[in-house]
Amino acid sequence: MKNCIKYLFLAVIVLGSVACNDRDSILKVYNWADYIDETVLEEFEVWYQEQTGQEISVVYQTFDINETMLSRIEKGQEDYDVVCPSEYIIERMMAQNLLLPIERDFGSTPNYIDQNLSPFIVKSFEKVNCGDKRALDYTVPYMWGTTGILYNAKYVTDEEASSWDVLVNPKFHDKLFVKDACRDVYTTLLLYLKNDEIEAGLLDKDSIMYSYNAEYMALVEDFLKQVAPGVAGWEADFGKEQMTQEKGYLNLSWSGDAKWAYDEAQIVGVDLRYCIPKEGSNVWFDGWVIPKYAKNVKAASYFINFLCRSDIAIRNMDATGYVGVLASPEILEAMIDESQDYTVNASYFFGPGMADSVKLNHMFYPDSIDISRCTLMHDWGEDTPRLIEMWTRIKGDNASVRTYVLIVVLFLSMVGLPIASKIRKKNRKRSRRRKRR
Question: What are the chain's domains?
C-alpha cells in the first residue's frame, strides 16, 4: 500500500506537468492490480540508469478489466509506454495496429527475453492470431495459467472431478460456483462437448477455438442451460472464499485462484484440490506490449527485458501468487516444492531433460499429459456481442440476484470474523481478478 500511494502521488505530479518535462525520463506503466512486486519498479529506475546512463522515473497505474485498458489506448488519449493485456486483447490490438515492435537489441545489456522464455510459451504464442505478423515481435509473455476444477475432496471424488460432466451432476446442486468469464467457460465446454470428435481425429482442438458458428454456440448454450440451475454463484473473485469455507464443493476456476484457495484451505484443514478435466481446457496468458501512442519506446523495451531477469521474475511470482513464463534453471530451482507427494513431467515447459520428473505444484505446472489437452482461446472480434448475449441469457436475473446475496453474506461474515492466524508469506498472495468480456 505504501508503494502504491507513492506511485499514485508520483503519477499525479508527473501527469500534471508532463508538458514541461522531458518524456524520455518518464516511463508510464499500465498493469493489472496486484500483479507485480512494486519494489522492482524502484530497482528498475536504478538499473536503467546503470545500463543506459539515463535517468528514468516510473509512473505506475493499474486497471482491472481488459476492455477498460483497451478503450483508453484506442482513443489515443493516453500515452502509456507499456501495458499488460490478456491474449485475446493482444490479438485485438494487433488487428487494429495499436502495437509497436519490442526492441531486442540492448547493446551490452543481455537479452533476457529470448534467453529465458519457456519453449512452451514460445510455441503457444505462435498460435496468437496476428495476421501476417509474428506475435512475439510485438508482445513478451508475463504470466500464464489454466482453467480447471477446484473441488473439495471431502464431497467430490477425484474421479468425479476428472470430467466436465461434473458440472451437471445433481449431487452438487447449489454447491457449484462458476467463473463469470464467458470466454473461458465457452472454450472449455466446447472442448468437452466436441471431445469425441477431437479424440477421433475429426476435429482439431486448436482450430475449433476459431469457430464461432451458430451450431457451436447453440451446443454450448444448451449445455449451460443444464448447468445454470445448480449454480450457486457466477463469480469473478469470491468463489475461492466460498470454497475455503465449504459453502461450495466445486468451482470452475482459474489456476491462480485455485492456488490461493488451496493455501488458505490448508490453514483451516479443508482439503481442496485442482485438476484439468480429461476433455481438456484453455490456457490463458498475459503479456507486455508497447502501445502505438507510447512516448518512451526505449525505456519500455528495457523495462520488459528487466522483468525477464530470473531474479526479478521470481520476486514477481512470489508477490502475486501467479506463475511466470520463464524457464531458466534458476526459475526451476526456485519452484521445486519438496513438500509435494507427487512429481510432474514439466519438460514441455523447461526443456528436454530439465524437468522430466520433478516435484512442482501442478496448479502452476500441469503434467505434460494434462497440458497436451489444453489450447489457447482467441478474440471473437465482431462476434463478441453474440457471446455476451448468450452469457447474459444463461445467467439470468435470478442467478444474478443470488450472486449479489452471496456477496453480501460473504462481506458480513468477513467483517464479523477476526483474523485467527497469521498466514505464511507464501500463502498471503492476493489474487488478481481476470475480468473478461
Answer: 2-142+285-323 (3.40.190.10), 145-283+376-427 (3.40.190.10), 329-372 (no CATH)
